[in-house]
Amino acid sequence: MFPHLSGLTLPCAPSRAGCTVRAFAWHPHTNKFAVALLDDSIRVYNSNSATVPSLKHRLQRNVAAMAWKPLCASILAVACQSCVLVWHLDPTSLSTRPSSGCAQVLSCPGHSPVTSLAWAPSGERLLSASPVDTAMLVWDVSTETCVQLQWFGGGGVTYLAWSPDGSKVLAATPSAVFRVWEAQMWTCERWPTIRGRCQTGCWSPDGSRLLFTVLGESVIYSLSFSEYRGEMQGQVGGSKTASIVADLSETTFETLYGEERIGGEVHSMVWDPTGERLAVIIRGHPESPNSQPAVAVFRTRNSPVFELLPCGFVRGERGARPQLISFHPCFPQGALLTVCWSSGKISHIPFFFVGALEPHASPRRSPVPVPAWHPRASPPSGAPHTCTGAGCAAPAPIKGGFSLPLLSSP
């Protein structure tokens, strides 16, 4: 019925057979996060409370994504099989089982399954998308009404990412094309890919650069965007072509633990809010016995010249594969990377660096532009080194962090 969806695997909806954690979401302003488990229940953990609410609803099935509303204490949107659930949670409540009456139901005929969500940074609008619906929906949650953003060609939408400055939205499709929408007049530009669909993407903190990957490829592409004013306002302003900034083809590293093969197709990618760390899940080569999935970490700078330098790798316990990654939105000492493993554990890996404490426009020395990095190449010796903590050395496995074991709720 939907030939463009054949063989489609969504990064935000891990296989039921391969992962205990279905979705993860940090709260944008506090030390609180939500975890969706295999049984479609959601647990909310808060560093300031021993109470762990468990969210359940009869419509909360096949949870694919979650997103906390910005500038709000406790509103959580959940992408489900037939609808979007918006939970309104009382942060002072001691209840571990909030009533299903705390959840709004947002639904639209033909808009299912819902697999991707994105709040506007202002919190005023919520986007939802489905791979079988060619329209994205822009919701006014307060009135439970929506506006359809429709286009023809390319199928539905498999992945959404709203830029941190609120100006643009990335919308990936099941076909070899993706679109970037301008979020004021809602015009869009399309970029065709050569080999496959856009697998994942992430924005720089100022919304001026988009990094994305393509299914079946082991490289990271970059698109830069200009800010238009006056008569040109309302245009997307993207560059005409994308440039390759990193090649993650499989290669061999000599480590303290022996020879390891790392590299391959990129599964997902996140950029931390400071713009100084990029984390990438690399699948590894399935036919190579020594090739294992890993999380590659890069040091990045977007201004005045874009640069991307390797930091190291994050590996889990033997047999554990990274499934989901996310950066803490407001970690004060640098960047905090969260990794959800196929074993059901969640690891939090801190990266402490001086750059987070210095003015970003005043680097200690002129940055060295790095148009593309390949794992067989060593980091340039003239590159600025502002990192003073974990994950700052040449490529090597990163140790440390702490893990939170998760169990299926009863």
Automatic annotation (TrEMBL):
SUPFAM superfamilies in the record: WD40 repeat-like
A Gene Ontology cellular-component term: nuclear pore
InterPro entries xref list: Aladin, Beta-prop_Aladin, WD40/YVTN_repeat-like_dom_sf, WD40_repeat_dom_sf, WD40_rpt
Matches recorded under SMART domains: WD40
Biological process, per Gene Ontology: nucleocytoplasmic transport
Domain of life of the native organism: Eukaryota
Pfam families noted in UniProt: Beta-prop_Aladin
Chain ranges of the Aladin seven-bladed propeller domain: 18-351
Protein name: Aladin WD repeat nucleoporin
Gene from which this protein is expressed: AAAS
